[in-house]
Predict the 3D structure of the following.
Amino acid sequence: MPKTPTITQLISLPAPTGGRVSPDGHRVAYTLKRPNWRQNRYEAHVFIYDTRTQQTHQLTRHGSVSQLAWLGEETLAVLREAFEGPDDRGKQQVWLFEGLVGEGWPVTDHETNVWSFQPFAEGFLYKAAHPARRTNTPRTERFGTFRHQERETSAHALYYVSLPRLRDYLAACDQASTEAASKQLQRPVVDLSAIFSEPRTLRRFEGSSTGNTIYLTCRVRDDLVFDDDPECYELRLDPEAALEAQLRLDAEPNSNGDEPTVDHLGTLTRIALPPGSTLGPLSPDGLKIVVERRLRDRYWYTQPDLFTFDIADAQLDSDDLANRLVQLTHGLDQDPLEACWCNAGVVVWVLEGTRAGFYVLGPDAPPRRLDLGQTIPGPGFHANHQGHFCFVGSDPDHLDEVYTLALEDGTATPLKVTALNEQVEPFEWGTVETIQWTSRDGTPIEGVLRKPPGFEAGKQYPLAFVVHGGPASANREWLLEGVDRRYYPSVELASRGVLVLKPNYRGSLGRGQSFVELNAGNLGVGDLWDLESAVDALVERGMVDRDRVGCMGWSQGGYISAMAGLRSDRFTAVSVGAGISDWYTYRVSNDVPQFTDHYLGANPYENRAIYEKTSPISGLSTDAPPMLIQHGEKDRRVPFSNAADER
């Protein structure tokens, strides 16, 4: 007999978190995240699916994996955090599984976590904190435990490790007669980012298939206030020669006191792209690269466009290079959130209202949407050069599953790799559907509505809003999104006879540029109209009890919930998660002050009135509904002062 899952059962469900398809498309490696109740944490393990045998086997059983990369059909590299005990987070390092069996072996042994990696040349590139810079001794000596905001030198570093040399090194360690002797051996790793005259924060690195060029997108410091001014570089090098030279330098310390040279690390060139440009994936032949930039202006609410240019032109000056950029996104009025480059073209994942889709882009053809039927793809997809895909998808009636497909003759037919829905057949989830309504100013708005099991037309139900953050995000028409699984109890509320509405309010993605910018200069005000109009529309349809309406959300969703509690008479209870109470307090204390400058059109010293108009606390009164405030004490994006404002 169908039953509603408990919260414990809900958060225990395995969730696919992404995958990678092998070079010839015959295998899919994917991760499933599930709780480890004994250790009180979530862990993601790797599974391998063979499309020829349709068999699956589990590859990892310990630790938690966050990144995958194939080195051929029989070898998989993973970024895995190995735990030592229940209270030990462990270190995240690159592990190699050869033959797709066994527990693998660690390729890196960095002092700190490895943040990301990529196969390159005869080994790997990996990004991690530089051990000497991460401690920042001068800062600590001067300021103690305080952080010097916007003045910290970045600890980011990019390393190269050679697999053949690493095997030789490990064999030599095994043959060393003593531990002291093994410690005298040099691990074959070189810090390529030492070529910068000043450290840079590495936003992205992309190594060429030829193994002699790396493309870097950086910013001058870690603080996100510098993120609007990225720098792009081309590093040309012989990685094996650079490593050999570095090992010689390390073995023969400079006794003359001269500054060490970095000539062996290659040639670094700043690519003179237009301001705000960032680099994306390389073409399969390695001759072109994707560039992302906001073409109209550089406001955060402006959707970016994608371009390509020939890497042979990377040495050109700014005017010549800008004229050689070829736009790919003509005719695509959506934000290209993720991109991969395969032989068929540049494939992007975009949100489309309460759905999502893949588009194939090329310079000489309009965007071509792949027909996936009713399946709605999620983020984190991968496409190899041959056009074999791996992605996570769902729909209103099924939990998310892992799919694979191949682009052949312009068609795409998804093949389901997992069977996660079989374990939840006894559960009752209610029904999920997209609804539309008209906001106060005539703007069409839509959202994802979950109806209780056994919903009766004509009956009035309580209504609870679950409001997404961003605002540049959107809810999809999935049976269970991440927010339903682990953050807000949508299924439990529905099982108790509550309608749950996740609104894609103005400013959400998936409706084009004109919709994204509707809340610019109108934050919270127009957004609240959208929620209030939803209440009125559902009351008019005879579905909602006007006296039992609640609102909850996190970050931007928490801010809108605060507006609902303090600026509206439609709501009887609200929950504010990491919400903004006062934009002025937020502007002077958070790590992205440019957010308010862009969305409110001015800083508070230029136009304090717009900050007052759009701040929930300006509507504080004694007749506000009950309000639950939840906030992280160390939240830098929305600092705790927004929960403790005592004005």
Remarks:
- The chain has 15 helices and 36 strands.
- The CA atoms of residues 269 and 553 lie 45 Å apart.
- The mean pLDDT is 92.
